Amino acid sequence: MWPQAAAERAEAIDRRIRERDRLPPAGAPLAVKATEGLRSLQTARPIAAGCVPVGATSTSAPPASPSASS
Q1: 37: phi > 0 → left, psi -120 to 50 → alpha, else beta; which?
Q2: Claim: this prediction has a pTM higher than 0.85
Q3: Per DSSP, what are the bridge partners of residue 29?
C-alpha cells in the first residue's frame, strides 16, 4: 500500500476538479500490477485520467516447469 502517495495524488486530483478539469474516473482507486509499475502505459493512462494508485498487486512466481526426466 502507498498511503502517502495516494493521499498526495488524491489532493492533486481534487485541485484539478476545482479548476474544472473533467476527469470521469476522478479518485477511483487503482491497484498497479507489480510487474508493470507506475510508468507503464497500462498504468499511466488511468492515472492521467484521474485514478489514484493505492498499491501494487502481488504476483506469484511462474509455475516450475515439469522435469523432462521422470
Answers
A1: left
A2: no
A3: 52
